[in-house]
Predict the structure.
Amino acid sequence: MQAGHDAARVGHKVRKLKDRWDAHLRTNGLNTTDQREAIVEAFLHSTAHVSIDELLARVRKKHPRVGYATVYRTVRLLIEAGLASPLQVGKEQTRYEVAGAHHDHLICMKCNLILEFESEEIERLQEKIARELGGFQVLNHKHELYCLCPKARGVPGGHCPNED
């Protein structure tokens, strides 16, 4: 029974995000295409941090003629609409996630594992630092910790959570 409830909740969330997407298109006088809509659907149903290449591969299963540039431009529009958030992984790779509740990231620079976490202590400390450095009010932030997992560091017997 729980699985059906979870699927319904995900479906409701995707519909709400899709409504925001449609509103963004209308507000900006943008047209849509079947290919663009397939990209948006595939992205909004993503549960992980995806690269453009991964999203392209998913979309091409149903729409083989979709090009890289179309996926890239659509993801840029999703970011403009506030529906996607970019995450820099390493020097040359960006991954994207569906925008939602705030969380921070821990990223292994070798295996590209991305772990999401939340810490009330870190949030409080950021607010305190902003106040102490001149009375700033934090409106938004990204907290990304670039690390090496135990295996990547060469710790004897160390394992990578990415292998679980």
The CA atoms of residues 113 and 161 lie 8 Å apart.
